[in-house]
Amino acid sequence: MNIPHITLRKIDQKRLDSLHERTTSNLSHENVWYIHTVLAQCFLPYRDPKTRDWMRENGKYSIILSAGVTKDPRNPKQLMEVGLPYGAKPRLFQSYICTQVIKQQSPVIPVERSMTAMIQELGLIASGGKEGTIRAFKDQITRFANCNFTIVGPGPNGTDTYIKAPPIKRFDVWFPRDADQCMLWPSEITLTDEYFYSLKDHAIPFDFRALKSIQNKPRAQDIYLWMTQRLCRIAENRPLLMRWKDLHEMFGGQSPLKAFKRDFPKDLIAARMAYPDTRMEEHKDGFLFRASLPPVPKTKLLVR
Fold it and tell me: Coil, strand or helix: which one is 182?
């Protein structure tokens, strides 16, 4: 019997190696990261929408993002719109911020002094230059720090309730030495008191080694984080059916439904490899999700 030889792509081999590491070693404290439960359900754009505003729905709730402005480095008397955060990098950054807040128990996070360390901790190579990771991160951090967040939910008597929910209260900005670079970035970020205390009450733990294995796939990141907080809350006798319409509303981004149906299963496979305890199956109308163990087991406390 001839067994076919399959050559894996480097990225597939990397994910398999990560899966082997996670399943053969204990989860350490430094690998437990956190994300706000809202950020595990309402997501950023996957690519640059090139608009000032962005809205994404998730059932009865929606998130509205509005791009912020800064002074123009070329002309400080003029304002410059910095654009909306998008793609994989701001997702990794918001996980980093949430994790630092929980572990340091402080709403103040230094960014510039730990920029290279942060990028390396995220599993990326810290490179300079026009196309380097440092410049790309600075751009996305500036967009995220300036962005205005609004959560829309159901109100009384069929109305909508709008909640201003900016996570960042203050950020100190460094201006580029060369104004033609047009690159600003915050050196320190202070979260709002509301977001700080909300995060402490609603932080979702996850295995960062798993997220790092899909660090360049923003939709797979979203699927993984959504599953970490949702599947452990499904009743054993009541599986959750996510129809294509529901999935498209949550994870569709700017893709039309036809393209989404083609691409979503690929990202779901990557997310499932990051979360091997996922119990789910295909359904004629979408996917059926079942009660699954959380990536980070709940801590048992001994009360004396």
Answer: coil
Q: Can you tell me the distance from the alpha carbon of 32 to that of 47, in angstroms, rounded to the nearest whole number?
A: 28
Q: How far apart are CA 56 and CA 45, in angstroms?
A: 9
| Residue 265 tokens, joined | 């299963």
| Helices vs strands, H then E, count in the chain | 9, 14
If one counts every other C-beta atom within 10 angstroms of the C-beta of residue 66, the result is 16
Burial of 104 per CB tally in 10 Å (0-12, 13-18, 19+) = exposed
Nearest CA-CA partner of 168 in 139, 138, 188: 188
The C-alpha atoms of residue 122 and residue 95 are separated, in whole angstroms, by 10
**Is residue 38 predicted with pLDDT exceeding 80?**
yes
Instruction: State residue 22's pLDDT score.
Output: 66
Place of tokens 């500036």: 142
> In which order are the strands placed within the sheet that holds 160-164?
53-58, 61-66, 148-154, 160-164
Q: Under 8 Å CB-to-CB from 248, ≥6 apart: which residues?
A: 257, 260
What's the distance, CA 21 to chain centroid? 23
Under 8 Å between Cβ of 296 and 205: yes
**Would you list the domain boundaries of the chain?**
10-290
- Identify the residue with better confidence: 236 or 20: 236
Distance from C-alpha of 118 to C-alpha of 116, rounded to nearest angstrom: 5
pTM: 0.83
